[in-house]
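name: query_chain
kind: protein
chains: 1
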Amino acid sequence: MRILYLTHYFPPEGNAPASRVYEMSKRWVRQGHEVTVITCAPNAPAGVLYPGYRNRLVQRERMDGIDVVRVWTYLAANKGTVLRIANYLSFMLTGSIAGLLVRRPDVVIATSPQFFCGWAGVLVRRFRRLPFILEIRDIWPEGIVAVGALSNKRLIRLLEALEVRMYRLAMQIVAVGEGYKSEIAAKGIDPSKIAVITNGADLDVYYPREPDGHLCSALGLKGKFVCSYNGNIGMTSGLDIVLRAARLLKAKRRTDIQFILVGDGAVRKDLEDQARRSALDNVLFVGRQAKDAIPRFLSVSDVCLVHLKRRRLFKTTLPSKMFEAMAMGKAIVLGVEGCAAEILRDAEGGICIEPENEHALAAALESLADNDERRAACGRNGYEHVRRFYNRDVLARKYISVLEKVVEAAST
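structure:
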């Protein structure tokens, strides 16, 4: 098949949507399919172009056999509302135009976030009369409303109407979790139209290994019990819990427990400033890292924190960073309720805590720091669970079977 994939994010950006599109696409290419990805010049989360790229009208590159078409967008940091919406709308326009000009595909996929990327897929589908698959990784606009980034009721109602219309125009919806499927079905969409293909881990990249000694020395982590957070330090992450837990641990003289926050985002600078003012030397910010460097940081971690703010909507979320850390054999401290908590409990891969509860986080870390046997068992269990159920190779084959059925149905 010839597959056209529209996505706001793509490597060298290392966030979850970029990783998912790349991991699926490169596996489909290996299976003999042709994949064209239409995306932006890499700039997330700061709205600053990555080295070696320019924000041109169109630029092309080849990445692991994937034909990557990068289009111009209005660049904006991943915070605020007005400038971000300008960024999203500009991609809807330029991405749609690019989708009309590339070689005719057999099927079009558009992935959220962001919401207007989905509408780019709708426009390509309409003008080229192609089967269209809408991939939902985030329920929008509920997601931005939940964190207070949007409060205009008229605009919210308009976006909600566009959201449901987009669902109806898709021939097939692919959701990344059962919780998302339930949320979409509750809006009046036939559940039989919604397939679930979760995120997962590339087991050729993420696997148990010895700690990276050079990195451990460079970060001053020798003799420390390391809890790392790896990912977007944004409005939804609720990572002020780390600072509050760090204060509790410091007051209890648990100088052995060290937090490291790997990543960047809208609230990173504010958190870093707070940590500096409070002299929290048990919290280390290392900034955004290349995606291929993340396994090194996971290797020096004893425990990995996965956390989101306590919001009803986030009960549907399955953070991909959880699967990658489990694949590395790391125990998880999970501050996400709902579907993610069910998976971790089934895997017996760590400790679930109440989101935004610093006392629960501190207690979980002390428990795992003081019990090597339990921590090791959580790591082994988590690895085995990901190997069996969340292997990217298996998920890519499952996804391609969905595409084949859609293309076949469209041709009859």
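note: The radius of gyration is 21 Å.
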